[in-house]
Write a structure and sequence with these properties.
- The complex is a heterodimer of chains A (212) and B (225).
- Chain A is built from 6 helices and 11 strands.
- Chain A is an alpha/beta fold and 212 residues long.
- Chain A has one domain: P-loop containing nucleotide triphosphate hydrolases (Rossmann fold).
- The two termini of chain A are 25 Å apart.
- In chain B, helix 5 runs antiparallel to helix 8.
- The relative contact order of chain B is 0.15.
- The chains are: A alpha/beta (212), B mainly alpha (225).
- Chains A and B meet through strand 7 of A and helix 6 and helix 7 of B.
Chain lengths: 212, 225
């Protein structure tokens, strides 16, 4: 279970939220600049809240009271960035393996099954040049899943995809969530996709959750 | 027949100076782009100073430091019985210092241009700060590092003012190409001076031309990415 209570002052407003997520898909929906990415960055340890507590199961990632702030690299938080952040100077293969410290047989098995699941076997030997938005996204997702994260954060995963692909990817997340049974947070500004595969939707406005 | 000694000495001194400038320049650029600390502006100004100070002034200040009576010079002489002044080592020190600002500025700009999302992505994938630097920041800054290296090398190769102050003009020991040009012209051996001028100009031209060519093809690669 992921538990978050946090306050963070931004330029125009403050993010002030609290939530708990079980092993489910939760969508944060809100206009751009409503604080969605700030929440994800705080969970991933790329930024610290001013105040609050972030806990995954029994591990405290952050606590202003106990003065705990775990380094991002130790959190095992899978974070797929908005434009995927595929490393431009590495091959597809190297990108996917970047987060793996030791190549074991188990990891090799995971790698093969991920390529199959995401239907990107044909990309394995490719350079990262000339990839489509959908291909980049799948590679980013494979790269994150190779680290076997304990929570998965997806920032605007649909923004670079056309509408048919969006629906397909939405179903895919559902499928992946059934295999990797961990908390998922998807951030999006588009309502229609979110509804089709989320267990819950939180609406975010100026850093606060609001009712629709 | 021309004396090739100044040519090889100049290249040797420029290579070693460039390596030092590369190491220190990368280190300082990393520190100043990543951390905020007291005295950072002073340090950055100091790092740029040799670029704008007349080389003779840089040389004079260096002389005060590594000369027999200077703090470093005295220390080396007292503890290691080693006199650095009027040796090729002094020319390396001068070369490193005048080349440093070009290297530092170029690498710093390159580090600042690296999109932080790549570094952040690496962190969330479990990479340590050292690994982030070695596998993400450094390779993505390669353009700036190569530019800085070429400019620093060219600058060190042509260094005159500071070098003559600390290394002197000892033929067969510390005489580099620029010094050979100056003293050949002084002695009215214009043909000899001309040959050295030609060699120096050709080497620097080829380096700068090569850099431009490499950048162009590297940019083409990036556009396809």
């Amino acid at each position: 279970m992921l538990e978050v209570t946090m306050k963070k002052k931004l330029t125009d407003f403050s993010v002030d939220i609290g939530f708990q997520i079980e092993n489910e898909i939760v969508t944060f929906q809100g206009d751009s600049g409503s604080g969605k990415t700030t929440i994800l960055r705080c969970i991933a340890g790329l930024m610290n809240p001013d105040q609050g507590m972030i806990k995954l199961n029994k591990t405290t990632f952050f606590s202003s009271e106990q003065k705990i702030s775990m380094a991002s690299r130790n959190r095992r938080v899978g974070y797929m960035f908005q434009d995927y952040a595929i490393f431009p100077h590495m091959s597809v293969y190297k990108n996917i393996w970047y987060g793996v410290s030791q190549k074991t047989k188990v990891k090799q098995g995971l790698y093969e099954s991920l390529l199959k699941l995401l239907e990107i076997e044909y990309l394995a030997e490719r350079d990262v040049k000339n990839l489509s938005g959908g291909e980049r996204q799948r590679i980013a997702l494979a790269r994150v899943l190779m680290t076997e994260p304990e929570v998965l954060l997806l920032d605007e995963p649909f923004s670079a995809l056309d509408s048919t692909l969006r629906k397909h990817v939405g179903m895919e997340f559902k499928k992946i969530q059934e295999i990797w049974d961990i908390p998922y947070i998807i951030v999006t500004h588009d309502e229609s996709e979110a509804k089709s595969f989320s267990n819950r939707i939180f609406y975010l406005k100026q850093g606060h959750f609001v009712m629709r | 027949m021309i004396d090739w000694f100044p040519v090889f000495l100049s290249i040797k001194i420029a290579v070693v100076s460039t390596i030092f400038a590369l190491i220190f320049g990368t280190f300082l650029a990393y520190v100043t782009t990543k951390y905020d600390f007291k005295g950072k502006s002073v340090l950055e100004a100091l790092a740029t100073l040799p670029l704008v100070l007349p080389p003779l002034v840089t040389g004079f200040l260096l002389l005060m430091l590594i000369g027999r009576k200077g703090a470093v010079g005295e220390f080396l002489f007292y503890y290691f019985d080693f006199q650095i002044i009027f040796t090729p080592y002094a020319a390396v020190v001068a070369g490193t210092i005048v080349a440093f600002p070009l290297m530092y500025q170029s690498i710093k700009t390159a580090f600042l241009c690296v999109d932080h999302k790549f570094e952040d992505a690496a962190r969330t994938l479990g990479a340590s700060e050292l690994r982030v630097f070695l596998t993400i920041s450094l390779p993505l800054s390669v353009n700036g590092i190569v530019s800085g290296t070429v400019m620093a090398f060219s600058r060190a190769l042509g260094e005159f003012g500071a070098t003559i102050m600390v290394a002197g003009n000892i033929a067969g020991k510390t005489q580099t190409i620029p010094l050979a040009i100056y003293f050949a012209s002084e002695a009215n051996e214009l043909e000899l001076a001309g040959v050295y001028v030609f060699i120096l100009s050709i080497v620097i031209f080829l380096l700068v031309f090569g850099l431009g060519y490499w950048k162009k093809s590297a940019n083409k690669e990036m556009r396809h990415a």
